[in-house]
Amino acid sequence: MASYSMGDLKKGLKIEIDGIPFKIVEYQHVKPGKGPAFVRIKIKSFIDGKVLEKTFHAGDKCEAPNLEDKTMQYLYDDGENCQFMDTETYEQVAISDEDVGEAKKWMLDGMMVNVLFHNGKAIGVEVPQVVELKIVETAPNFKGDTQGSNKKPATLETGAVVQIPFHVLEGEVIRVDTVRGEYIEKANK
User: Fold this and answer.
1) Taking a C-beta distance cutoff of 8 angstroms, is the pair 4, 51 a contact?
2) DSSP secondary-structure letter at 129?
3) Which residue from 50, 65, 143, 175 puts its CA 20 to 30 A from 136's CA?
4) Which residues pair with 78 in a beta bridge?
5) Distance CA 125, CA 30 (A)
6) Which residues make beta-bridge pairs with 126?
7) How far, in Å, CA of 16 to CA of 88, rounded?
8) How far apart are CA 158 and CA 168, in angstroms?
9) Which CA distances in Å does 84 have to 112, 116, 125, 135, 167?
10) How far apart are CA 148 and CA 154, in angstroms?
11) What angle is formed at CA 157 by the lines to CA 151 and CA 160, rounded to 5 degrees?
């Protein structure tokens, strides 16, 4: 396993501290008037999403985490866990709803997603940034509501709710940005 020292740290680098994988989200090199230079970083945990602040001095070391990204097919939710399948080996993996997190509201049965593994254990799921989903419930249009920036809530086939323009109707398929949770446009179907 690779080891990182203070000089190797940078934004976006994945590191492991006390057996927990983190991603550096903020990096600052500090050279005070007195004393040696140090690095102050903010790190986000891949396990629980918490952001911590940590200071590294010359000589401090941290490890590279054993992370693996696999593209897998989402099969179904059994009530407690989401079931995923590796389409090459047909091996199935169950990930708790808690570990799947926000990604769950954008997943449809059969969708390909990225599953993150740490030391062989599935710890998270990442859906594509843009997904196409069908609107299953929204308010009907009223005359004069098609203009302006007014929006209405729409429930999608996964259960997620997004704000859409008034001209978009129930039953239509739309493209949604999963990072921001926002409507992009109607899908061309």
Assistant:
1) no
2) S
3) 143
4) none
5) 35
6) 114
7) 29
8) 18
9) 9, 12, 10, 25, 36
10) 18
11) 55
